């Protein structure tokens, strides 16, 4: 995998966010302030534009540029969280021209660590962590068990989608939805939903590039 993998990943995210914008808005309207779909769409549209203007940076630098772009274009909680996640992930592969599956695990693990560090959320708090952590764990376990990368990423995307659905039954303990207390139960978390889309986009991008 190389810089083109990252560019394709970000393009796939942009396409997915546009397609799911209204759904993400609805989910956030139920337990937040209704801006998640527009936040993510605006952010990843700007990321794709920034990457198009880049003159051949290595993949880690592209992730750092993507993260910086999210921080500067997204006002909601998801901007700084995904922004720091992508910057932390990018720093793992630094100036390398290419990266392999085990390095991809470390990129995603650093992204997850950064989200947890900044947002102080754990699995079960009804946030994006409920989708991202099972994806990272599943990808790591799959590759450790000898699965090929495409299969391990497929399993990771399925795990993220299961994590996303698991948020329906949870009471929010972080972010805006936590202000609702018990009334947040019964609604799928918007950030976990967009995170499942981001992991699915990665699976598509890697399958396409290989
Ligand atoms: P805002 O809540 O500022 O309007 P968004 O609507 O863009 O921002 O994003 C909301 C999503 O951000 C939530 O659904 C949740 O998944 C995620 N989120 C909020 N706070 C945290 C946190 N402290 N840690 C992890 N994720 C969080
Ligand atoms: Mg919101």
Features:
210 residues; binds adenosine-5'-diphosphate; mainly alpha; 8 helices; binds magnesium ion
Fold and architecture overview:
With 210 residues, the protein is mainly α. The chain is built from eight helices and no strands. It has helices at 3-31, 36-52, 59-73, 78-93, 101-119, 129-144, 149-166, 190-209. It is globular, with a radius of gyration of 16 Å. The structure holds adenosine-5'-diphosphate and magnesium ion. Residues 28, 32-33, 35-36, 76, 176 line the site of magnesium ion (MG).
The major beta sheet can be summarized as:
none
Hetero groups in this structure are: adenosine-5'-diphosphate, magnesium ion
Q: Indicate the proportion of strand residues.
A: under 5%
Instruction: Give average pLDDT, whole number.
Output: 97
* H and E order: HHHHHHHH
Helix content: over 70%
What is the topological layout?
Blueprint: H1 3-31, H2 36-52, H3 59-73, H4 78-93, H5 101-119, H6 129-144, H7 149-166, H8 190-209
Helix pairs in contact: 1-2, 1-3, 1-8, 2-3, 3-4, 4-5, 5-6, 6-7, 6-8, 7-8
The protein binds adenosine-5'-diphosphate and magnesium ion (MG).
Residues 28, 32-33, 35-36, 39, 76-78, 81, 115, 119, 121, 127-129, 174-176, 189-192 line the site of adenosine-5'-diphosphate (ADP).
Summarize, please.
The chain is an all-alpha fold and 210 residues long. It has eight helices and no strands.
């Amino acid at each position: 995998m190389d810089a083109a993998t990252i560019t394709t990943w970000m393009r796939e995210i942009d396409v997915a966010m546009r397609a799911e914008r209204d759904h993400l808005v609805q989910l956030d309207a139920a337990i937040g302030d209704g801006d998640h779909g527009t936040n993510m769409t605006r952010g990843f549209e700007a990321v794709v534009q920034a990457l198009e203007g880049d003159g051949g940076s290595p993949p880690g630098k592209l992730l750092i540029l993507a993260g910086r772009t999210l921080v500067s274009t997204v006002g909601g909680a998801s901007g700084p969280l995904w922004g720091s996640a992508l910057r932390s992930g990018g720093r793992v592969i630094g100036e390398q021209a290419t990266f392999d599956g085990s390095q991809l695990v470390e990129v995603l693990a650093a992204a997850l660590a950064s989200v947890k560090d900044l947002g102080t959320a754990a699995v079960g708090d009804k946030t994006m962590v409920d989708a991202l952590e099972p994806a990272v764990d599943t990808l790591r376990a799959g590759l450790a068990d000898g699965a090929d990368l495409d299969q391990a990423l497929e399993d990771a995307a399925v795990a993220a989608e299961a994590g996303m659905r698991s948020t329906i039954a949870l009471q929010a303990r972080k972010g805006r939805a936590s202000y609702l207390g018990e009334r947040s139960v019964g609604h799928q978390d918007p950030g976990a939903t967009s995170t499942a889309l981001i992991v699915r986009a990665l699976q598509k991008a890697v399958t396409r590039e290989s």
